[in-house]
Amino acid sequence: MSEVQIPSAYVAPKGRSLFEPHRIFLMLVFAGLIFCVAWFMRWDWLPRYQDRLIYGIGQTLLMLFSTAIVGFLLAVPLGLVQVTGPKPLALLARGFCTLIRGTPLLLQLWLLYYGVGSLFAQFPEIRSSFLWPYLRQAWPYGFTALMISFAAYEGEVMRGAFAGVPRGELEAARAFGMGRFTLFRRIWLPRAIHRALPTLTGETVLQLKSTPLVATVTVVDVYAIISRVRQETYLTYEPLLLLALIYLCLTGILVYAFRLLENRIPTKGV
Amino acid sequence: MDATLHLLSLTSPGWGGVLLGGLVASLQVAFGGYLLGLLIGTGGAAGKLWGGPILRDLLEVYTTVVRGVPELVLILILYYAGTDAVNQLMALAGLPSVDISGLAAGIFVIGVVQGAYSTEVLRGAILSIPPGQIEAARAYGMSPLLALRRVTLPAMLPFALPGLSNLWLIATKDTALLAVVGFAELTLVTRQAAGTTKAYMTFFLAAGVLYLGITLVSNLVIRAIEKRALRGMTRPGGAA
Amino acid sequence: AAQELKVGVAAEPYPPFSSPDASGKWVGWEVDFMNAVCAEAKVKCVLTPVAWDGIIPALTSKKIDAIMGSMSITPERSKTIAFSDKYYNTPTAVIGPKGVKFDATPEGLKGKVLGVQVSTIHADYAKKYFGPVVSEIKEYQTQDEANQDLASGRLDAVQADLITLQAFLDSDQGKACCEVKGNVKDDPEILGAGVGIGLRKEDTALKDKFNAAIKAIRTNGTYDKISKSYFTFDIYGK
Amino acid sequence: MAETAQAIEVRDLYKRFGPLEVLKGVSLTAKQGDVIALIGGSGSGKSTFLRCINMLELPTAGQVTIHGESIEMKSDGHGGLMPSNRKQIQRIRTKLGMVFQSFNLWQHMTVLQNVIEVPVHVLGQPRDKAIEVAEALLRRVGLYEKRDAYPSFLSGGQQQRAAIARALAIQPLVMLFDEPTSALDPELVGEVLSVIGDLAREKRTMILVTHEMKFARQVASHVVYLHGGVIEEQGPPEAIFENPQSERLKKFISSIH
Amino acid sequence: MAETAQAIEVRDLYKRFGPLEVLKGVSLTAKQGDVIALIGGSGSGKSTFLRCINMLELPTAGQVTIHGESIEMKSDGHGGLMPSNRKQIQRIRTKLGMVFQSFNLWQHMTVLQNVIEVPVHVLGQPRDKAIEVAEALLRRVGLYEKRDAYPSFLSGGQQQRAAIARALAIQPLVMLFDEPTSALDPELVGEVLSVIGDLAREKRTMILVTHEMKFARQVASHVVYLHGGVIEEQGPPEAIFENPQSERLKKFISSIH
Ligand SMILES: Nc1ncnc2c1ncn2[C@@H]1O[C@H](COP(=O)(O)OP(=O)(O)OP(=O)(O)O)[C@@H](O)[C@H]1O
Ligand SMILES: Nc1ncnc2c1ncn2[C@@H]1O[C@H](COP(=O)(O)OP(=O)(O)OP(=O)(O)O)[C@@H](O)[C@H]1O
Ligand SMILES: [Mg+2]
Ligand SMILES: [Mg+2]
Question: SMART domains recorded for this chain (chains D, E) (predicted)?
Answer without folding.
Answer: AAA (SM00382)
